[in-house]
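COURSE: Structural Biology Practicum
ASSIGNMENT: Worksheet 4, Part C
STUDENT ID: 0417
INSTRUCTIONS: Below are two proteins. For each, the amino acid sequence is given first, followed by its structure token string. Answer the questions at the end about the second protein only.

PROTEIN I
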Amino acid sequence: MNAIVNRLHRKGCRAEQATEEDWKELKQYALDCEPSFLERISSGEAKLTDKELKVSLLSRLLFTPSEQATLLGLSKQRITNIRSAANRKLFSQSGAKFFDGNILGL
């Protein structure tokens, strides 16, 4: 696994938020390793917010909702709401229940 992904997993477990530099590195990693995925979730058609993009990318990289909440400095409920909104925008499905499976299927 990539160094940035490992570093963010450690931060998520240690209750540390991700820095802007971390997000830039993660986006570059996605551009290098998951370009079609990043293009799909970044398309203007989906109209994802910045947080929805980050949560989608973190989900694709197998970060738990708890890790996502820590890295973004948000509550777990807020992450659930973001996942639900992204699931609706990307896959026309309500709720967050099948979000991970949908994201991994892209």
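PROTEIN II
(use this one for the questions)
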Amino acid sequence: EDPIPVSEVMKRDLVTVAPETTTLEAVALMKGKSIGSLPVVKDGRLIGIVTERDFMDIASELLEDKLKE
């Protein structure tokens, strides 16, 4: 059996953000759309991606700082 190419399973109707999008806006968008990552696009070009994991890392740091107070 031939392997399935990623083009068969990839999403085509992407939700993207600009580099200037705030983290709160991005988290709300991901939550509202039930998606786990957001491509970051500038001038029509992909320049990066943010994921749930990235935001979990930030939340973890903030929580640790808060607990130290």
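ANSWER KEY EXCERPT:
Q1: The two ends are 58 Å apart (CA to CA).
Q2: Helices lie at 23-33, 52-68.
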